[in-house]
Amino acid sequence: MFALTDLGARPLKANLKCDPDDAIRLRAAHPDLVVPGWHMNKRHWNTVTVSGGPAGALPDRLVRELVEDSYDLVVAGLPRAARLRLDRP
Questions:
Q1: What CA–CA distance (Å, rounded) separates 5 from 55?
Q2: Do 77 and 68 contact (CB within 8 A), yes or no?
Q3: Mean pLDDT, the chain, integer
Q4: Residue 22: what pLDDT?
Q5: 41-65 burial, b if ≥16 CB within 10 A, otherwise e?
Q6: What is the pTM of this model?
Q7: C-alpha angle 13-19-22 in degrees, rounded to nearest 5
Q8: pLDDT, position 57
């Protein structure tokens, strides 16, 4: 699992895996939009307000990068055989 969300929620939020150092930096840069992961390991997961929040929204490009980084972190932790099935050595 690399992302967790309720697609019907407003504002739309997603839990995304993150490098711990990047997580701290993102939370400091976007304190109303990026917070420690709700019901997740707070060191490795952020809850990101994707759209419709009272503080606005993160740029689309940043959201895409955060989703891609989350996916890459999760895939990197998979066994080699599973990564190869995903064509990700």
A1: 19
A2: no
A3: 90
A4: 95
A5: eeebbbbbbbeebeeebbeeebbee
A6: 0.85
A7: 80
A8: 77
Listed in sequence order, the DSSP H helices in 7-79 are: 20-29, 60-76
pLDDT tens digit string along 36-72?
998 888 889 999 998 876 667 788 899 999 999 999 9
Token pair belonging to 79: 């066994």
* Domains of the chain with bracketed CATH: 3-85 (3.90.1150.30)
Residues 26, 84: Cα–Cα separation, whole Å? 31
Say which residues have a Cβ less than 8 Å from residue 67's Cβ, sequence separation at least 6.
Answer: 2, 3, 14, 16
